[in-house]
């Protein structure tokens, strides 16, 4: 009974996170002036100096990567409620929360958050040996991410990383540094 109440608390908090994250992200496009760094509505960040980037959903006090990772426990509680013994109404409620949290995760544009979700999901899926539908869903998720992986390498083509042949990488340290 205590565990069921704890799961209920996680689901309500997940619902709050999912709805508020989407609300803040939507508000950014309607009233962008209220989103100032260090302000109360510092939930979306966008750099006008880098117009090729997209607005990133983040928490009010941490960046988008940390916000993405903080969503994961709530996502897995929702997934457990979706697959466990429950009424149809409760499974629909958990599915709605899970979808809201997935949208929040995607709007953070956090590759680390998505990778952490996928790795934890692999462990979670294979912990349930008889859940072949979940294994198929996992394979579909990985196949879907395969199409996104070339985009990850093309994200910043104008800003290549320094290599050993670049002048910045082969430049000596300044003479003011101690030997």
Question: Helices, strands, pairings?
Answer:
Blueprint: H1 2-30, E1 44-45, E2 56-57, H2 64-83, H3 88-107, H4 111-127, H5 132-153, H6 167-170
Antiparallel strand pairs: 1-2
Helix pairs in contact: 1-2, 1-3, 2-3, 2-4, 4-5
The percent range for strand residues is under 5%
**First CA to last CA: what distance?**
65 Å
Radius of gyration: 21 Å
In helices, the fraction of residues equals 55-70%
Please outline the major beta sheet. 2 strands, antiparallel
| Distinct helical segment count | 6
Secondary-structure element pattern, one letter each: HEEHHHHH
Shape: globular
Which structural class best describes the helix and strand composition? Answer: mainly alpha
Strand numbers in spatial order across the main sheet: 1-2
Uncertain stretches of 5 or more adjacent residues: 161-177
Mean pLDDT: 75
Number of strands: 2
3D architecture notes:
- 63% of the residues lie in helices and 2% in strands.
- The chain is globular, with a radius of gyration of 21 Å.
- It has 6 helices and 2 strands.
- It starts with a helix and ends in a 9-residue tail after the last helix.
- Strands 1-2 form a two-stranded antiparallel sheet.
- The model is unreliable at 161-177 (pLDDT under 50).
- α1 (2-30) crosses α3 (88-107) and α2 (64-83) runs parallel beside α4.
- It has 179 residues and is mostly helical.
